[in-house]
Amino acid sequence: MKKALTRLGTLIAAAGLAISPVAAQAQETNPGTPDHQHFSVSGFKSYEQLVSKLKQIEQNSQGRVSVEAAGHSNRGRAIHTATVGHGDKVIMITSQIHGNEPTGTEALVNLLQYLGSSRSPRAEQLRNELTLVAIPQMNPDAAVLNRRANDMPWEDVTASFPSLANVEPAWNYYTRTIQGHDYSKRPGFDVNRDFHPDLDYQPQPEDFPGRSSQPGWYITPEAQTIRDVYRSLTQTHGKVDVYIDLHHQGPYYKVEGSDDLVTLSLSGQFVPDPNSPEGAKYSEYADRYNYDFSRQLNVAAYNALQEMGHSPFDNITLYPQGLDLPGTALGSFALNGSGTVLFEVRGQTQSMGQKKRGQLVKAVETGLNGILDSVAAGTVHEIDPEDYEKIPSTDR
């Protein structure tokens, strides 16, 4: 039987704390939008430390890991890719599209260090079977500011796209206080709403301001960079088999009847099936969309976490389903044929401390390794996709 879960926000409301209209609006734009998102970045790598660590991993890998600047943020910071392996199965993993969500970044660095240095039979198999392309920090400007949105005023958009000069700014453009951060002096965009399933799409004035159930526009350099990496991989390898995006969901979910907080949530559903009546508007992508494969990948991660057999690995849930978010990287790339997995790990707050941070990074690593092993060995295709529906659910 699925565990029943309730939002910790229910407890907040019961205590008489009102949720602001901004928080309510953010709640409607899942995935990756907790109502209150105050994370401590103490102990996590700064942008400069991350760049230095990636270069060190490359130098020590004896040619196994290649680090490149795939593009640049709006403020000119390099967005790095790290590639390891030469197999036919292509896996792209991204983290920190929201700058205050760094757990996945730490997990990716650990994974790259292992694959770059280990001579174990397992590491050799992964390198032989997979081509892994990691982007540990998609939004470095936001990471430096420890906030969700990038650092980009609307004027920078219209400078790049003059045809948008007289349109209303995009709906995901932050100019006020959101999730405790004041964007009035340094506005920016939720980059994870700036994707479009048409990888060649060019912004059109009539598509603004848009809304969460519509595609984005590739108006931010961060989304453009990720799109370009994805598109280049499809051109070189035929397709990106797997796309994984690493997020935080904040400490807002708990198991009903206990004080156990959810460790992380998984999902493979971000748009309705193009072969269904609900997804008819995406019918042009119907031949590419592979929801069953996404479900198998998520089960592979879930099984690996369950095998750990102890806290914090036992409170793994299914992220809220029924989403229609083509403006997310996950939604757009799923429509382009990639199996997709969302990781939404519990947020790090100052009260959780160094030990909890390490446990949660390990949870992300464990789930990722479950996917990599199953894809490399081919056993992912033996998983019953319906097992996905047995993962404990999470209520909104």
- Overall form: globular
Summarize the main sheet: 8 strands, mixed
Question: What integer is the average pLDDT?
Answer: 87
CATH level-3 fold name: Aminopeptidase
Discrete helix count = 11
Q: How many domains comprise the coordinates?
A: 1
Low-pLDDT windows of residues: 1-39
Major β-sheet strand ordering: 2-3-5-4-10-14-12-13
Could you name the CATH homologous superfamily? Zn peptidases
CATH architecture annotation name: 3-Layer(aba) Sandwich
Query: Strand-residue fraction?
Result: 15-25%
Rg over CA atoms, rounded to whole Å, is 20 Å
Which structural category do the helix and sheet elements fall into? alpha/beta
CATH class equals Alpha Beta
Our measurement of the CA-to-CA distance between the termini, rounded to an integer number of angstroms, reads 19 Å
The count of strands amounts to 14
Portion of residues within helices: 25-40%
In sequence order, what are the helices and strands, one letter per element?
EHHHEEEHHEHHEEEEHEEEHEHEH
